[in-house]
Write a structure and sequence with these properties.
two-stranded antiparallel ribbon; mainly alpha; single chain; 70% helix
Length: 324
């Protein structure tokens, strides 16, 4: 049984990867035939205008790949099913957002308050689930130590809400260049697979492996120049997947390290907005989030993406060190 557990994450990754690879061509053609193309913001980098019309909502492939891998290999572990539920729930919010954008031919879908309500509601369910389980509870591990602290339930719930909503939006912000979100999430999910296994939960490592494999399969089609975009369907779901892994492994504080690239992206956006308001119109970055800043500095898209992957890998390894 132990030997089988060792291979679970790899089996999950392989199945999810294969499913996405096999689905890719027909899904992209289907989305193209439906004219489910990406609307590009006119105030974004000019080179992005050529991406207009590229099929979007490809995140559906990721969700199907993860779901099949989990259903095929999970051995009745309730935590894995709940992690899948949370991921799919965030994917539904993204799907509705993408669908509205496509049908109305606008660059905005759900209203911000509608999207936030859904994100907070799912985050509340995650917090409630964790608190209700004796094997999770309100215990969290402190990075770079063996210290586990038990938080008051209300404090823990607030922390989980912040982790869930913050991560989903941070990954959504990261999804702005070909292969950027799929690559960085694959790295973070792989790291959390290792975390889950080290902390004695190989089934949850299976879920992490499935997310990793699905992201890598999607990256095959999303690499520059992208044949398909994941849309909010993919980015919100993947943010939810990484966040729920952090919560269920009792390592939400480690997510700041493992998901450091997402923290940087989100902080750059916050800094830009605050600085713009304080200076009455001046910009701290040429454009936010920060990957667009490097674009406007003249960096080529593949160069930015590759370097962000490397930074993401550094943070993932640092995060693993914080668990050991």
């Amino acid at each position: 049984m132990e030997n089988v557990a060792i291979y679970l994450p790899f089996l999950g990754a392989l199945i999810a990867f294969a499913v996405v690879i096999l689905m890719g061509p027909m899904t992209i053609k289907f989305l193209h035939d439906l004219k489910f193309g990406q609307n590009v913001r006119s105030d974004g980098p000019k080179r992005h205008l050529q991406k207009a019309g590229t099929p979007t909502m490809g995140g559906v492939m990721i969700l199907i790949g993860v779901t099949i891998a989990v259903l095929f290999f999970n051995r009745g572990n309730n935590q894995v099913y709940f992690a899948l539920f949370a991921t799919l729930a965030y994917g539904v919010i993204g799907f509705l957002d993408d669908l509205i954008i496509i049908l109305t031919r606008r660059s905005l879908g759900l209203k911000a308050r509608q999207k936030l309500f859904g994100q907070f509601f799912i985050g509340f369910l995650v917090a409630l689930y964790a608190i209700s389980r004796p094997d999770i509870g309100t215990d969290i591990l402190i990075p770079f130590t063996d210290i586990v602290i038990s938080l008051p339930k209300i404090v823990y719930a607030i922390l989980v809400l912040g982790v869930m909503v913050g991560t989903t939006n941070a990954v959504n912000l990261t999804d702005g260049l070909d292969g950027l979100a799929s690559g960085t999430v694959a790295i973070a999910a792989a790291a959390y697979g290792a975390v889950a296994y080290l902390l004695g939960n190989p089934e949850l490592a299976l879920f992490a492996g499935a997310v990793t494999g699905a992201c890598l399969g999607f990256a095959w089609f999303n690499a520059h120049p992208a044949a398909v975009f994941m849309g909010d369907t993919g980015s919100l779901a993947l943010g939810g997947a990484v966040a729920v892994l952090a919560v269920l492994t009792g390592t939400p504080l480690h997510l700041v390290i493992i998901g450091g690239i997402f923290v940087i992206e989100a902080l750059s956006d916050i800094i830009q907005v605050v600085y713009f308001r304080l200076t009455k119109g001046k910009r701290f970055f040429k454009m936010a989030p920060i990957h667009h800043h490097f674009e406007l500095l003249g960096w080529e898209e593949p160069k930015i993406v590759t370097r962000f992957w490397l930074v993401g890998l550094f943070f993932a390894l640092l995060g693993l060190l914080a668990v050991l």
